[in-house]
Recover the amino acids of this structure.
């Protein structure tokens, strides 16, 4: 599977697990049919970037696992569509830099408690990269 599949029924799925597929990009409105999802697992796919539109439609999402991909870049405000996000796992990717605005959102990402960045070739983190993340307890 190289793309997020369309829902075959309108069930209120709370966990979406797309582990170990070949998903390389996320189209705009890919999550429109999954509005009740609280956990999204995209571990071990072929994602190379997280774009600003990649996560639209996941308003209730609390846990996002993007570990084990090939993510090199995250667009500014890419996580803004996720006001209730609590855990973000970005481990095991190819990110060399965390830029200012990566975690920025109009709602202040007030519930984000844990950001996992282990096993990335990080060489630079902008000074304000983690600005306005009041609940982060684990980084």
């Amino acid at each position: 599977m190289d793309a997020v599949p369309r829902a075959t029924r309108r069930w209120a799925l709370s966990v979406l697990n797309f582990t170990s597929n070949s998903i390389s990009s996320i189209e705009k409105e890919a999550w429109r049919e999954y509005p009740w999802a609280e956990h999204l697992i995209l571990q071990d796919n072929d994602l190379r970037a997280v774009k600003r539109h990649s996560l639209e439609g996941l308003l209730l999402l609390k846990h996002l696992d993007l570990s084990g991909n090939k993510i090199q870049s995250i667009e500014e405000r890419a996580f803004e569509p996720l006001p209730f996000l609590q855990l973000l796992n970005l481990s095991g990717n190819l990110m060399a830099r965390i830029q200012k605005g990566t975690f920025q959102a109009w709602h202040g990402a007030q519930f984000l408690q844990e950001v996992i960045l282990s096993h990335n070739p990080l060489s630079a983190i902008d000074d304000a990269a983690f600005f306005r993340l009041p609940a982060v307890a684990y980084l």
The two ends are 32 Å apart (CA to CA). The mean pLDDT is 90. The domain at 1-111 is CATH 3.80.10.10 (Leucine-rich repeat, LRR (right-handed beta-alpha superhelix)).
